[in-house]
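Annual report, structural modelling task.

Input specification for the protoporphyrin IX containing FE complex:
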Amino acid sequence: MPTIFVHASFFFFTLVALSGVWMRLQFLHPVPFLPYTNILHGHSHLAILGWAFLGAFFLFLTYYWRTLKQKKQGIILFFLLMIVSVLMFISFLYQGYGLFSIIFSTTHIFLEYWTSLFIYQQIKIEGNELKSEKLFIFSSLFFLVLSSLGPFALGYISAIGQKESYWFDMAMYFYLHFQYNGWLTLFLIGMFILICKKQSIRLEDRLLEIGFWIYVLSLFPGYFLSVLWVDLGNLMIFLAILGSIGQWIGVIFILLAFLKSWKDISSQYATLISVILALTFLFLFIKSTTELGLIIPDLSILIYETRSIVIGYLHLTLLGFVSIFILAQNFMLKILPVKRLSIKGMILLIIGFLLNELLLFGQGLLEWTTRERIPYLNEGLFLASGLLLLGIIILWMTITRQKCYR
Ligand code: HEM
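The model returned the following structure:
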């Protein structure tokens, strides 16, 4: 497989972290160079569509490369996704939400449809038996397509001059919910099951399937949990409660299945990989459990109004769970080598992540209780983002030093 693919995915991860450092720097020392909101839009779009999307697709290509029927199509698709992601990032930096950034992010959506079809066809070739990994991957593709209704709705709502209405935020949360709780979570779990099974690790399919169905059916009402701050009546509160408890139970079943095979998993992989996997699952558990707090309407309004809590939660999910899970699978597929340097890189990244979360959630709690600020908060957040950036670059370096990974 072209080596440029792995470098592209780490290049995007590095740019994501760099734009994060840039934003944190602005809190310490205003830099008049680019408007903050442009960097923010560039950062979040590149993170989800550049790093996470390409990172997940890269895992798929690596896993199937030898047996892949349409290698040429896979290469063209990956290159197009790379080019569009770069152009989208540059246009967000340059103009924020504007003509070009909208054109490129919409093009990305159409490439996502193509990618879904490509993945679907490849997995279908493998046979008709619907095993647990296929359930996870097929449904993730469905949620990927479903989530794209969010951005189209955003365009329509802006076009009719309702950008300031709560419909705009509802469309944005629709997109985010089905992207990270749907597409990314299900796809990465599906890939993890595939990799484990290839390694002859026995997993409890029954538990995984029960967990899958409870989780997936709860994802639909679970959307209302993200928009509880809009007063849409008791039915919505009931659906949000149903969704969040269902999602939590689904996650517990899935984690239980992994826990039951833990001995097998940890004996197959180096200690570093087992530790990263254990952390990933712990972050998924913490994320799902904290979501239960949103059931209380007053608390949910408070949470959505506290920026540091929202940002802390988004990064717990997208950085702590999604990104570290992608890295763990990179290690499992031997794309990232287990050696001293990669251990150091991973430690820095995890310390940076934990510091970031501690400060963001700590600040939120302090704001609610004493209305005070953590001393040197901005300096601490800047330090955390610097550690994250350094950790990612070190991990990337370990790949550049390898001549061939597959
Ligand atoms: C790797 C290190 C990262 C750093 C240092 C970082 C830093 C930041 C910062 C400083 C903000 C703005 C906070 C604010 O305005 O209060 C932010 C927002 C955000 N980040 Fe990250 N981030 C990182 C990784 C990621 C990743 C991997 C993802 C997703 C896969 C991500 C998704 C987001 C999203 C969705 C937002 C909110 C955007 C908005 O409010 O419009 N970040 N990040």
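Residues 16-17, 20-21, 23-24, 40, 43-44, 47-48, 51-52, 307, 311, 314-315, 318-319, 322-323, 385, 388 surround protoporphyrin IX containing FE (CB under 6 Å).
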